[in-house]
Specification:
It contains 3 helices and 13 strands; from the N terminus they run H-H-E-E-E-E-E-E-H-E-E-E-E-E-E-E. The chain is globular.
Length: 250
């Protein structure tokens, strides 16, 4: 009898913990969305143009990011007079990397394509995460830079996983850890978001630092965020002459 009772108690406790974890995750995401400006304002955004500079050690390079619904993304960086372009047109990803041995436009594939698709989500993965096929798990509390944070595990529909850290007071995202494919292989990448400012009633991080192996790789310093600017969808289209060229990457 005691054995059956203990087994029953174990399963009741286990199921309760699962439910509590899911409820806590959803409550945190709800507060996070409100901290960003609220679901209505987030979903009302039709397009975003972000300009700033990439800072790497003592060098800086201007960049522009275009995003537009339903799932369009383009990143241009002027690196010593050469333009690096990464884009997703809603169906496929493409890039022009002038620093590769073959600088012609090529299609993205694998992890690189998934990254571009994630960037094309204007709302962010946590908004309507269940409808998108993602899963979220609450992992408890921790500290980042001396501040208390809530820790969420985000399992994306495409199989990628991220750990997202939300500040316990502001509920804004301050850190994300994800496994990324780099020229040196698969590595754990840390992204730190700081200097939040309100833009059209929405909170935007204006400093985004990327670290690999605890070393700072580069920081995006954002000068301007323009919301609902008229952006021609042609900006995201792959040039016809190179559409059939396959990526030799991942």
């Amino acid at each position: 009898m005691i054995g059956k009772f203990l087994a029953w108690l174990f399963w009741i406790t286990f199921l309760f913990c699962l439910n509590a974890s899911a409820q806590t995750a959803d409550e945190l995401i709800g507060k996070h969305i409100e901290a960003r400006g609220g679901l209505q304002k987030i979903k009302a955004v039709r397009s975003i143009k972000t300009t700033g500079k990439l800072v790497e050690q003592n060098m800086s390079f201007p960049f522009t990011i275009y995003q537009k619904r339903p799932a369009l993304f383009r990143f241009d960086a002027d690196i010593q007079g050469k333009i690096l372009t990464l884009a997703y047109n809603g169906e496929m990803g493409w890039k022009i990397d002038p620093f590769q041995a073959n600088p012609e436009l090529i299609r993205m594939a694998g992890a690189e394509l998934r990254e571009a698709q994630e960037q094309a989500d204007l709302d962010g993965a946590l908004v309507d995460y269940q409808e998108k096929g993602h899963r979220v798990e609450f992992l408890g509390k921790e500290e980042v830079g001396g501040s208390a944070v809530y820790k969420l595990k985000l399992s994306l529909k495409n199989g990628d996983e991220q750990t997202i850290y939300l500040d316990c007071h502001s509920y804004l995202e301050v850190k994300t850890i994800a496994l990324k494919i780099t020229p040196a292989g698969e590595m754990e990448v840390e992204i730190y978001k700081r200097d939040y400012k309100m833009v059209n009633g929405l909170a935007w991080a204006h400093s985004i630092e990327t670290r690999i192996r605890k070393q700072s790789l580069y920081t995006q310093l954002i000068d301007q965020v323009e919301i609902d600017l008229a952006i021609d969808s042609a900006v995201f289209k792959m040039p016809v002459e190179a559409q059939e060229k396959k990526s030799s990457g991942h």
